[in-house]
Write a structure and sequence with these properties.
Layout: E1 2-6, E2 9-11, E3 17-24, E4 32-38, E5 45-50, E6 58-59, E7 67-72, E8 77-82, E9 91-98, E10 113-114, E11 118-122
Parallel strand pairs: 2-11
Antiparallel strand pairs: 1-3, 3-8, 4-5, 4-9, 5-6, 7-8, 9-10, 9-11
């Protein structure tokens, strides 16, 4: 499983970005997918995840109401729409996948496959 994260960049506070996590070699719809982030000097934290359509999506409290995770099965891609970005959202964002029917954001070790990361900078 190869995951390619993209979509990061520099945005002003209050702005938006959409991150993409594209898979190759597999049908990403068979996997639970999560976004994690890691800021300099901080631990990696789970941001959001999704799995089977009939299971819930999860968000970190700090991003609820601002971030939306979704997937396009035809493109084997998972997105993270990030709105009303704050300086504290700045980090390297990673997507991760696990061949499971449910997802978690509490543990990075739950996921076997990781993308390379895309950098999000929020600054005026």
């Amino acid at each position: 499983v190869q995951l390619q994260a993209s979509g990061g960049g520099l945005v002003q506070p209050g702005g938006s970005l959409r991150l993409s996590c594209a898979a190759s070699g597999v049908r990403l719809s068979d996997y639970s997918v999560a976004w994690f982030r890691q800021a300099p000097g901080k631990e990696r934290e789970g941001v959001s995840c999704l799995s089977d359509p009939d299971r819930p999506t999860y968000y970190a409290e700090s991003v609820k109401g601002r971030f939306t995770i979704s997937r396009d099965n035809a493109k084997d891609t998972v997105y993270l729409q990030m709105d009303n970005l704050k300086p504290e959202d700045a980090a390297m964002y990673y997507c991760a996948a696990a061949w499971t029917t449910h997802c978690v954001i509490s543990s990075a070790s739950y996921y076997d496959h990781w993308g390379q990361g895309t950098l999000v900078t929020v600054s005026s």
